Amino acid sequence: MVVLAVAVFVMLSSCAVGCLGNKNSTELKLWSMENQSMALQLAAVLKEMERLKCEQTTLQQQQNALTQVYITSHQKRAQKEVAGTNILTYGSNDEEEDNLPFSEEDSRKRGDPCFHYTVLDQAWRATNTTTKNKMCDRNFKWKGWYRLFYNGKSLQMPEKCVPVNKCGTQSPLWLAGPHPKRREGIVTRRVCGHWKKNCCAFRSTPIQVKKCRGNYYVYKFTEPSSCYLAYCADINTLVCGRCRRNQSCVSRDKINWRCKGKKRMSSKKIHFFASYPGQLKGKVNRVKYSKVLVNVGRAFDRRTGVFKAPVKGVYQFFFSTQTANTGLKTDLWLVVNGYWAAVSHTHISRPSTVGSLSTYMTFLHRGAVVYVTHNCGSSWANAASMTITFGGSLLAQWK
After folding, report:
1. 371 DSSP β-pair partners
2. What is the mean pLDDT of the chain?
3. Between 2-20 and 38-75, two packed helices, what is the crossing angle to 10 degrees?
4. Contacts with 264 (C-beta within 8 Å, 6 or more apart), sequence order
5. CA distance 159 to 175
6. Most buried pick, 42, 202, 233, 303, via CB within 10 A?
7. Which residue in 374, 387, 198 sits closest to 283, CA to CA?
8. Structural fold of domain 266-397
9. Model's pTM, two decimal places?
10. 45-55, pLDDT tens digit by residue?
11. What is the pLDDT of residue 66?
12. CB neighbours (10 Å) of residue 40?
């Protein structure tokens, strides 16, 4: 009997340690083999076995509950079904941002709607769609920012009045103002609903709009003022989703859109070089440099001798003269917008010939006028020497 009791005790002890671990192991009561009967010892052992089995069941239930919480938290990030249309959320409001769908490190900012928006891909919103069942966006619980798609392709709101009974509703909502440029950030725009030949019969609650890198827009939609009103997705702007980063989406009639390359400020080239193949004596208000060798950008007019700045920026000019009259002072002045800005001066004290070259750098606004005046003295040149010259270049263009 002693052997049997000891064997049962060892079995229960190992079970308790395996199921509950060292920390939660059960301390079994030892009975005196001399003072207790075999029946009482067996009853106590069976009771202890039932208690251990109950604790093991409780621990198993707790483990299952924790597993279910973990699975549920991950399922919330999956695709949601709203009104029978797939609406996917890009970005996250949680602390983890490891799964953002964009790889641009500098643009991963908390609260930036360009990377935290909901995809709104509902075909009935297209400007060419008419349905029997009229939709009303007042019944939709708008929250946060949205980006419009049509069958997986990015597009934007219309900027022109949409005919009634389009966009899956009675009074289509369109953007009563231009989409912003990226440097403008987040802007507020009015939204109008077309009804009974009045393009702005319904003036709904204004919305916020932002342009993002990649030529797409995000919208912070709000509940319309009444039913049946719904936000439109302009089917004509599908081409805008194909524009490159150095292109902008433009339209003259707000119906036909196209991608247009942006002008690079540094691409503008302005250079000119001209000479006067003759003699100048005394006062000449404006030297007409008739021989033009370089005129990139066509900013210099050979008939008047005037350079007119085509763009705003930093320019550098040079002008020269040659004199040979002893004791005679010769001055040429560079005139900028009517002001005498720089002089080319010579004064010969003995028989010889002297050349003089002057340079001048300045900032000019578009339309500024620059020319050279012969104030006094005598200058000479011929077709081969080119000693009386005038030239300049655009060094840097400003926006």
Report:
1. 335
2. 78
3. 10
4. none
5. 5
6. 233
7. 374
8. Jelly Rolls (2.60.120)
9. 0.45
10. 777 777 777 77
11. 61
12. 11
